[in-house]
Write a structure and sequence with these properties.
The chain is α+β, with helices and mostly antiparallel strands. The protein folds into two domains: 31-176, Immunoglobulin-like, CATH 2.60.40; 181-310, no CATH class. The protein contains eight helices and 13 strands. It has a six-stranded mixed β-sheet with strand order 2-13-12-4-10-9, with no helix packed on it. α4 packs across α5 (232-256) and α5 (232-256) runs antiparallel to α6 (269-284).
């Protein structure tokens, strides 16, 4: 009985040893097998992040397939395109990495299988001309909610048959909650900071100034106040400068639109007057004579209008310049008649 018990104990011990040997040998083999790993990424809710899937110990493989699982409540992969393969429409979610694009022939397919939150990836490289390691593919995920999801590999199959898969390394995606107000303030502050100094501002920056103001207003609608913006005075000065530059341009454009001096007529006087009014408006805003490109042209036009006005008589007698001489003639004529009548009466 004691002998039987010893044999039983020995048998159990041998089975345990063999099991451990098999386990360790399998672990050692797996350590040298084809190894997949995914990167760790993070972003704000609503952002898109690109997960990198790398491969190691893969020289000479002719194909590999695997599934990668994720929490579909937190993230979702972004479809790249639809392809028809053997009469079936396949949704492509992966972008091939250099490990595949550098081979003579590769085909990467990705589509949801029956389980939600599990993506199937299939790749074949018939010539087996792969490097030992590299970027296998990338997958773009949109972050749907705050939280962290693991990216877990499963169902890994490698060909040819004499190649095995090593234990993969999971990745993760962390979705961070966003302070919408602070994000809006930061965007406005960056837009203002990117504006050039007021002295360097030109009309080419008008859209940038307007965009910065839009971002400030958007932040204020969310509850921001003036003190939240580091350089709000810079934006206000920029807006004034743009307004001034536009006033100067409007005056120059009006002057430039006037006819040439030799073609100018009194009919053009309203346009000359309007151009001068635009110049004066810009000056009231801080412009100087040096700011106007065509100010000399305006002055010449104004002088020409004055010349034309002096050559035009005022009907019906030729104007006020002829009224005084005519009056003197009437008076002298009257005096002559009075003198003549008095002489006749004295006879």
């Amino acid at each position: 009985m004691r002998l039987l018990r010893k044999r039983k104990t020995l048998l159990i011990t041998m089975v345990m040893c063999i099991s451990l040997l098999l386990l360790f040998s399998q672990a050692a083999f797996a350590a040298n097998g084809v190894k997949l790993s995914a990167s760790d990424e993070s972003g704000a809710v609503g952002d898109e992040v690109t997960v990198k899937v790398n491969i190691e110990n893969a020289e000479g493989i002719t194909g590999i397939e695997f599934s990668i699982s994720f929490d579909s409540d937190l993230v979702k992969p972004k479809a790249i395109e639809e392809k028809e393969i053997e009469g079936e429409m396949i949704t492509i979610y992966t972008e091939e990495g250099a490990f595949l694009t550098d081979t003579l022939s590769s085909l990467t397919l990705s589509n949801y299988i029956e389980e939600e939150g599990k993506l199937k990836v299939i790749s074949t490289t018939p010539y087996g001309d792969t490097e030992a390691e590299g970027l296998f593919c990338t997958i773009v995920f949109e972050i749907l909610a705050e939280g962290t999801t693991n990216l877990t590999f499963s169902d890994i199959v490698v060909s040819p048959d004499d190649m095995e898969a090593a234990a993969p390394v999971s990745g993760s995606i962390e979705g961070e909650d966003v302070d919408e107000l602070q994000e809006a303030i930061d965007a406005a502050n960056k837009a203002i900071a990117d504006l050039p100094d007021v002295d360097d501002l030109t009309l080419d920056y008008k859209e940038d100034v307007e965009k910065a103001r839009e971002l400030v207003d958007a932040a204020k609608e969310l509850g921001a106040e003036d003190d939240d913006f580091d350089e709000l005075s810079k934006l206000e000065d920029a807006e004034k400068k743009i307004e001034l530059l536009e006033a100067i341009k409007a005056a120059d454009d009006a002057i430039l639109a006037l006819p040439a001096l030799d073609e100018l007529t009194l009919d053009d006087k309203p346009d000359v007057v309007a151009a001068r009014a635009l110049v004066n408006k810009a000056k009231d805003m801080g412009a100087t004579d040096d700011d106007f490109t065509y100010l000399a042209t305006l002055r010449a036009a104004e002088n020409r209008i004055r010349e034309l006005e002096e050559k035009v008589p005022t009907p019906p007698t030729g104007g006020m310049n002829y009224f005084l001489p005519l009056g003197m003639l009437v008076i002298l004529g009257g005096l002559f008649l009075l003198i003549k009548r008095s002489r006749l009466a004295s006879r």
